[in-house]
Amino acid sequence: MNNLNDPPRWNIPPGAGGRGAGAGDGNQWNYALLVPMLGLAAFRWIWTRESQREIQNAKAQYDKDVSLIKSEMEARYRATLTESHRKAATLELELEKEKQKVKGYRQALISQSQHQMEQQKQLQQVCLGNDTELDVLEGSPTPPVVTADVRGM
């Protein structure tokens, strides 16, 4: 009759090193360690493949994120650069306009001062002419105009 609680040679009895059937070649120990080792090797192989796949996916996602951020930063840089060039050009135009205004004001000031000098000369001539007419009418000679400094002599 079969005794299911004690099947022959299914379990390794303690201390079976040199006795019993098949004890000389150690087949039971070899087979007993083979299955867990195969299981561990399969688990390690699967784990390594999955880990490598996850690492590759993470690297791909990282590269994608870095390239996206890089392109965004370059776009911002170009926009900022374009805006600053635009502002610089606008400021240069305004500066040129202001320079033209200053040049116009300077020319107007020069023209006005020349006009005032001419008016002053005309007024002096009119005044001298009026003085001579008065002198002629009164009959007295005109006093001489002193232009040199007499104190220095």
From TrEMBL:
Signal peptide residues on this chain, from the entry's feature table:
none
| Coiled coil, from the record | 81-108
List the InterPro entries hit by this protein, alphabetically: CCDC127
Q: Which UniProt keywords apply?
A: Coiled coil, Membrane, Transmembrane, Transmembrane helix
Please list every transmembrane segment annotated in the UniProt record, as residue ranges: 29-47
Instruction: Reply yes or no: does the keyword Ribosomal protein apply.
Output: no
Region of interest: Disordered: 1-21
PANTHER family in alphabetical order? COILED-COIL DOMAIN-CONTAINING PROTEIN 127
Q: What is the protein's name according to its record?
A: Coiled-coil domain containing 127a
What is the protein's species of origin? Cynoglossus semilaevis
Question: What taxonomic lineage is listed for the species of origin?
Answer: Eukaryota, Metazoa, Chordata, Craniata, Vertebrata
